């Protein structure tokens, strides 16, 4: 019964944060006040708050209380090379990955051109959908050179490709060139993403290089525009 109680409190507060009834930047009531309003023990409230913190809904500040985070948008660093797994850690159970496609292909003219490679190079083509709070809002399309990555499984793609490349294969991913464009959604975008009412998509193209400056990967990360905020820190030299 107690278990159900803290889950119900967690869900109630989380849904209010998701739909904007509790705004980002505001303080939640104190543990005592929450205990009173939910007719629950402080221990039950603490459990619910711990879970809200782990899933990226609130940030607990010593001596101040629980600050509500802005969950309507997710920060994607423009200049960093970060995997979705690393970004989604603070979202806990809110983020899920679905591997829609994993196959070895010969590149078409467009891909050979983009990566300045010969037509006989073999690639892995991986399509992954990222779901956050039950909505499918990112389509990640990856093309990895087979000569660097001889084998790849659905399980690796579901988890983290970068973790596999660096941890298992010992490759050093060094830098990337990025392009950001606004485009009309493709048929593929409509097939995989929840795009009803949206007429644009934010496309982040990544050309990823190893430490010897050889290209290993081309990525297109296709984002629904309402959910993403691309952030960077700039200093005038």
TrEMBL record:
A GO molecular function assigned to this protein is: DNA-binding transcription factor activity
BP term (GO), one: negative regulation of DNA-templated transcription
InterPro entries reported in the protein's UniProt record: Bact_HTH_transcr_reg, Chorismate_lyase_/UTRA_dom_sf, TreR, Tscrpt_reg_HTH_GntR, UTRA, WH-like_DNA-bd_sf, WH_DNA-bd_sf
Record's NCBIfam families? trehalos_R_Bsub
- Residues forming the HTH gntR-type domain are 3-71
Which CDD domains would you find in this protein's record? WHTH_GntR
* Pfam families xrefs: GntR, UTRA
Q: What UniProt keywords are attached to this protein's entry?
A: DNA-binding, Repressor, Transcription, Transcription regulation
- Domain of life, source organism: Bacteria
Q: Which PANTHER family match?
A: HTH-TYPE TRANSCRIPTIONAL REGULATOR TRER (PTHR44846:SF12), MANNOSYL-D-GLYCERATE TRANSPORT/METABOLISM SYSTEM REPRESSOR MNGR-RELATED (PTHR44846)
Its protein name is Trehalose operon repressor
């Amino acid at each position: 019964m107690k278990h159900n109680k803290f889950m119900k409190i967690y869900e109630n507060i989380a849904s209010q944060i998701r739909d904007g009834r509790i705004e980002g930047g505001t303080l939640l009531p104190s543990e005592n006040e929450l205990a009173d309003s939910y007719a629950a023990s402080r221990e039950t409230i603490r459990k619910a708050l711990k879970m809200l913190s782990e899933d990226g809904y609130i940030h607990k500040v010593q001596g101040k209380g629980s600050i509500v985070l802005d969950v309507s948008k997710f920060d994607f660093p423009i200049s960093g090379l970060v995997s979705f797994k690393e970004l989604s850690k603070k979202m806990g159970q809110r983020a899920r990955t679905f591997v829609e496609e994993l196959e070895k292909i010969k590149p078409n003219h467009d891909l050979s051109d983009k990566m300045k490679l010969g037509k006989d190079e073999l690639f892995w083509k991986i399509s992954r959908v990222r779901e956050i709070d039950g909505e499918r809002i990112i389509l990640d399309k990856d093309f990895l050179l087979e000569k660097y990555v001889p084998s790849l499984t659905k399980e690796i793609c579901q988890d983290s490709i970068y973790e596999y490349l660096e941890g298992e294969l010992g490759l050093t991913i060094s830098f990337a060139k990025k392009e950001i464009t606004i485009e009309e959604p493709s048929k593929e975008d409509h097939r995989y993403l929840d795009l009803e009412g949206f007429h644009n998509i934010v496309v982040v193209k990544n050309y990823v290089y190893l430490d010897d400056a050889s290209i290993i990967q081309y990525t297109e990360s296709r984002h629904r525009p309402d959910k993403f905020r691309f952030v960077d820190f700039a200093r005038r030299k």
